[in-house]
Design a protein that fits this description.
There is one protein chain. It contains five helices and eight strands. By secondary structure, it is of the alpha+beta class. It has one domain: Gcn5-related N-acetyltransferase (GNAT) (Aminopeptidase), CATH 3.40.630.
Length: 182
């Protein structure tokens, strides 16, 4: 599966994240409100975000999110954890957008593009989200993801402590019949 595709919708284009995206992406990530509900709520700080950015590049599945109307970089997301066993699965996550793009269809379109791409190769997509991150949990429910109550994970978040994470899931059939179906 190609984890760094070029994808395009009406509002956004997605392309592989590059090292020279640092300045533009950190300018967005330094908006503290983006991280207020996130388990790593200190990610707006440069050293913390620098580690996040380096990991994104090292993992190989990171995408830059570009607003098509302006050509501006407005956020990032990732494909990670690809597992070809049992029909295949992978995780979509590490997503953030600048506040100016919240609630305007950008995240929805980005997720639709990413899910449509993923379901050409896998049967299931997982989303790993902090238990207290109601903004992301609501956004996942709005795109048709369901909470897998049988799975949780306690994650050590550097500089924060242990945070309970939940798993939301969309499978191929759920996507085809869900709110993001084309």
């Amino acid at each position: 599966m190609d984890r760094q595709p070029h994808l395009e919708g009406d509002l956004v284009a997605l392309r592989p994240l590059q090292p020279d995206d640092w300045d533009a992406l950190f300018a967005i990530a330094s908006q503290r409100e983006i991280w207020a509900m996130h388990p790593a709520h200190n990610r707006w700080q440069e050293p913390v975000f620098r580690a996040f950015f380096a990991d994104a590049l090292a993992q190989g599945g990171a995408l830059a999110v570009i607003a098509r109307a302006s050509g501006a970089l407005i956020g990032s997301s990732r494909f990670q954890g690809y597992d070809p066993a049992a029909g295949g699965s992978l995780e979509i996550g590490w997503t953030f957008l600048g506040q100016a793009y919240w609630g305007r269809g950008y995240n929805r379109e980005m997720k639709r593009l990413m899910l449509a791409h993923a379901f050409t190769s896998v049967e299931r997509v997982d989303f790993h989200v902090g238990e207290g991150n109601w903004r992301s949990r609501r956004a996942l429910a709005n795109i048709g993801a369901w909470l897998d109550e049988s799975r949780t994970e306690d994650v050590d978040v550097p500089g924060i402590g242990t945070v309970r994470h939940l798993f939301y899931v969309i499978d191929r059939a759920g996507f085809a019949g869900g709110p993001l179906a084309a």
